[in-house]
Design goal:
- There is one protein chain.
- The chain is mainly α.
- The protein has 2 domains: 2-153 and 235-265, no CATH class; 167-230.
- The chain has helices at 16-19, 22-38, 42-58, 63-71, 74-87, 105-131, 134-144, 154-184, 194-225, 244-265; strands at residues 93-96, 99-104.
Amino acid sequence: MIQDIFIGAYIPGDSALHRLDPRTKLAGMVIILGTVFLLKSPLNQGIACVATAAIAVLTAAGVRIWFWSLKRFVWMLVFATAANVLFVREGTAMTAGTLSLPFTDEGLRKGFFFTLQLAEAIVLSMCLTFTTSPIQITRACRRLSRPLRRFLPVEEIGLVLLLAMRFVPLLQQELRYIVDAQKSRGVEFGRGGPAIRAANLAAVLVPAVSNTLRRADILAEAMAARGFQPGQSRSEYEPLQFRSLDGKAGALVVLYLVIQSVVIMI
């Protein structure tokens, strides 16, 4: 079911993005994200928006999955727009006839572009997580961070990243199961005073925290049983390898950067 697609969930498939090396996808996403937040002109933002939409189509996730996933971020986008519109005082005050409105034209412009940038960042990150499993993302981060091994425990950081990415969807699923179970017992989360609502919230948080700690304890025992030792080098069953498709994707990213650079110089 579409409701089972959690934030950051991996969707198995055979699209072009699924077949790319995770290092290519991670590096490409970082580069495009950089242009999204560093380039401020409307034309640059338009090009970034078109590129983001094209990447979203290449995920082959489907309109319904995208709609269900992005719907969860509507509140964030509305809040970002309202914050910029109401608190930016630069520019000319807007009026409606003889009525003075509590925002300016600069506030509207900044609110629109910041919300657009935030939406592009959300879509790009979801393109990565839809087409790349958490373990692949972790492996890509470890490989790209190898030059820093002399200064940072790259392997341990990668493991922590992997566990965090695995626990987020599990925690979401656990919370949904607990809420459904409490509703079946007659708990009404949207009614009552502050004390009743706090008690209802505790009925969800206490078992959620307890189950999370139990999962963490089981995971620690499983890692210890398999002989895990911090800092010990580990082999890979399927080593990452660049293919011709990665070269084509890299060429497209370079072309994107060239187009953005030409727009800047115009």
